[in-house]
Design goal:
about 100 residues
Length: about 100
């Protein structure tokens, strides 16, 4: 419930800031010149485009991290298997040496 109230307050704050800044305008050139665009809308569009560009990059890098985790897990498994083999070999040599000493 606290998150919801916080979200509502954030939305109200954004709307208030937008309302005060609608008189500030700028010209934007993208193949054609768009005149009289409110600065708030230009900033909002820039933010949304930045998020849209970042999402695919995040998804690709997240996949690489999971691959690296899988590889590190397999390396850990290999190390643990080698340690187990070494321990079992160590036990065999100990039992042989015990037999020789007796």
């Amino acid at each position: 419930m606290k998150r919801f109230i916080g979200l509502l307050l954030l939305i109200v704050l954004i709307v208030v800031i937008a309302g005060f800044n609608l008189q500030n305008t700028c010209n934007i050139w993208i193949i054609k010149t768009f005149k009289g665009i409110p600065v708030f809308y230009a900033l909002l569009a820039s933010f949304i485009l930045g998020v849209l560009v970042t999402i695919p990059i995040m998804l690709v890098s997240n996949g690489e991290k999971s691959k690296a985790k899988k590889e590190s897990k397999s390396e850990k498994e290999i190390k643990s298997e080698k340690e187990q083999e070494d321990e079992s070999l160590g036990e065999k040599t100990d039992s042989k040496s015990d037999g020789i000493e007796k």
